[in-house]
Amino acid sequence: MLSRLLKEHQAKQNERKELQERRRREAIAAATSLTEALVDHLNVGVAQAYVNQRKLDHEVKTLQVQAGQFAKQTAQWISMVEGFNQALKEIGDVENWARSIEMDMRTIATALEYVHKGQLQTS
User: Fold this and answer.
1) What pTM value is reported for the model?
2) In this predicted structure, what is the pLDDT of residue 28?
């Protein structure tokens, strides 16, 4: 009877150990599953942040290139406007020169007419 009680006690202890071991393995599996789920969730966020950062980097590079092109274009426009202003000044200078020559020619023509009339009257 004592040996039977001992065997039953040992069998119950073995069952408890097996049950405890099974529960420990289940707890480890559940913790592992939870950890993997949390890591996967975090990785999705990190991956999205990485993708967004790459898009932003690409946009920044594109914007830098476009800003450089715009600066070159603006410099060309400024140069053209300055050239146009210079041409207008030169046209104004030529116009003033032409007026001056015209006035001189009129003065000479008037003087020649006066001289010519004076010679006609004395003859």
Assistant:
1) 0.49
2) 94
